[in-house]
Amino acid sequence: MSNVIESPANFASLFLAEVEQVARQLDVPSIERMASRLASVRERSGRVFILGVGGSAGNASHAVNDFRKLAGIEAYAPTDNVSELTARTNDEGWPTVFEAWLRVSKLQWRDAILVFSVGGGSVERNVSPNLVTALDYAKSVGASVLGIVGRDGGYTAKVADVCVIIPTVHRDRITPHSEAFQAIVWHLLVSHPVLQQKATKWESIAPKN
After folding, report:
1. Whole-angstrom Cα distance, residue 174 to residue 190?
2. Radius of gyration, alpha carbons of the chain
3. What pTM does this model have?
4. Which of 47, 91, 114, 160 has the greatest CB tally within 10 Å of its CB?
């Protein structure tokens, strides 16, 4: 936790100091293992399904673009299809929306799910129960389970093959740091030499010197 006194006048400095703390405390070996897992999924022609709720759903949509375009991995986010998402929520209930989507997509052992979440899902607390049912289904078919989550990681951290937990450096800002660092970690992954197949646009047209 930062020793900077929190006030409106110095809040920006405090927040950025916390960002630095989070970056320094990230579990680098776990990130490397995740890169290797994703490379293996691509090698066996598997798909990656990225699951997130709220702000993490927005991150999932962006990450799908990057994994497909830069890493050559077939990737999808169920939340991109708002018609199916809301129909299933209305007709079948919120807890099963991701599991049902994955069943129709015939999730199998060569695939992976990647969870973006602040809490990681908890049935007991009734927080993101749809992640829990999706994780159970993924494990039942032998798919790889990956996660980039905050706090203690919740159910995702308990069952994932590889999970990157975003460190908590201030109890009042768990969500903003967790969701922001989901983006840091996935951008790291699609830039990783074992995954990146195509240069990003501006880097590809920049002068070599």
Report:
1. 24
2. 18
3. 0.91
4. 114
What would the two tokens of residue 106 be?
Answer: 């015939």
In the sheet with 47-52, reading across from the earlier edge strand, the strands are 74-76, 47-52, 112-117, 144-149, 162-165
Please, what are the domains in the chain?
A: 33-196 (3.40.50.10490)
Q: Which residue has the higher pLDDT, 89 or 204?
A: 89
* Spatial separation of the C-alpha atoms in residues 74 and 41, rounded to whole Å: 10
pLDDT tens digits, residue range 74-132?
999 999 999 999 999 999 999 999 999 999 999 999 999 999 999 998 777 766 899 99
The answer to whether 63 and 94 have CB atoms below 8 angstroms apart is: no
Cβ neighbours of residue 201 closer than 8 Å, sequence gap 6 or more: none
Contact by Cβ (8 Å): 80, 105: no
H-run or E-run covering 112? strand 112-117
Residues 150, 154: Cα–Cα separation, whole Å: 8
Return d(Cα 114, Cα 166) in angstroms, integer. 15
Nearest residue to 114 via CA among 192, 37, 193, 174: 37
Distance separating alpha carbons of residues 41 and 147, to the nearest angstrom? 15
